[in-house]
Amino acid sequence: MKPRGSTAAAQPQARKTGSTPAACVESPRKLATWKPTHMPRIRSDELVIVLKPKITMDLHAAFGPGGIGTAVQRFTGSTTNAGISMWPVWNRNIVVVGVKTESLASKLIGDITLTIGDRQVPFQGHLKSAGETCKGVVTVTDNETSESLRRKLEWIDGEILYVRKLGTSNVAVVTSKGRRVPRFIHYCCENVPVRYYKKTVPACYRCGTVGHRPDACPNPDNQRCIHCGAKVELTLEGPVKHDCQPECLICGENRFTGSAQCIGKFRKAWKPALTQRQHGLKNKQEEPSAALRSDEKAKPMHNKPKPIKAPAGQKSRPSTFGAEDFPSLANPPKQVSNWVGVSSQSPTTTTASPSNPEILKQLEAMKKRIETLERENRALKASQAATPPPPSEPVAMHTSDCSDDEQDTQSDVSGNTSVSKTVVGASNDIEGRLSRLEAKLEEQSKMILEQTKLTVQDIIPQQLNLSVQAAMQDLKQSV
Length: 479
Description:
- The chain is α+β, with helices and mostly antiparallel strands.
- Among the domains are: 99 residues, Alpha-Beta Plaits (2-Layer Sandwich); 65 residues.
- Helix content is 34%, strand content 17%.
- The protein is built from 8 helices and 18 strands.
- The strands form 6 sheets. A 5-stranded antiparallel beta sheet has the order 2-3-1-5-4.
- The longest helix has 75 residues.
- The protein starts with 5 loop residues before the first helix and ends with a helix.
- 9% of the residues are buried.
């Protein structure tokens, strides 16, 4: 009797069209993961100098505990508490020095020699930019040095603080004052473009590791090919010929290490880790939210309304609220139909809310002002009706030029004309006062109307919100 599954195991499985064996699929190459060593924060009042050995040596093996500090103090001639602080970065084979005075910084910048036991070790120190500074990169000739470039480079619109040539290449890093990188600077009276400076991942082709530069390699391997990394024999004419296929130490592609085509050449910006205090604040902020979530889970489910299932063959529609679900307002506004046929609310006045005492005071002052103006208007009208207009003197005429009948006629006409002029002047004055009073009343009424509109705009949303909340509570209780 055959065991179960023997037939299925004997028959080979059918291969799907277009499938590829796992051995044939090339796994994507990963970039080299590297992060700079965590260092203490440097104070803002300190000048930072980076010391790098000019010969091949392992600083960690050459210096014992406190050895690098003793050598720097002996070279500068300072005491123990002279304001010098050092951080040896062993994996990068460099030393970072922080000083508080420019005199100490000037002693450590450039080519110096430190004493290690009986040995004299040459170092090169350069000032690290800090504060309101920025860096740019320019292309120069190969035979230039940092000292010669300081005399040949000039920025007319700003100040160049420091110039450093990168090894034996034709590139120099220019540190300028401020946060704006110049577009052009003068190199031997010639305008040359300035590119942005980007930090690169340090990779050493002499030993095949990522983390330090080739000029500061502590353990170089002379039998290693700097292009492909293969072990080859050295002769007087150089390495033995071999099948050399370049391989980048950073991206793993078939190119030279640190070439312009390398996709992982530049460093990525990374956020610093949270301090212990920030972790505590974050945990405190997360605790209330976690407590709220636990309370929501612990709430009983019997208070929630059960969904109503629709009969078979019918689609369920969302429940809507009717007019009977909401309580009616105490004083509903009247609706007036306009010429378009759309109902709109009539501009009814509403009393001010007792929660706004300033508006109440303004309304009371306006009412008193209107009453005063109305009393003045009534008193002015009564005084004008009680006092008759004063008689005017007749115009004198020459009696020798006209007859007796003409003189009587002219005197009557002149007397009537003067009286009519006086009455017209008085009436014009009264009309002017009345118009001014009406204008004042109109302004006061407009102000009252605007204040009332603002008050209504504040009251109506509150009343609607209260009504909706009351309706929702009634609905929940009924359900």
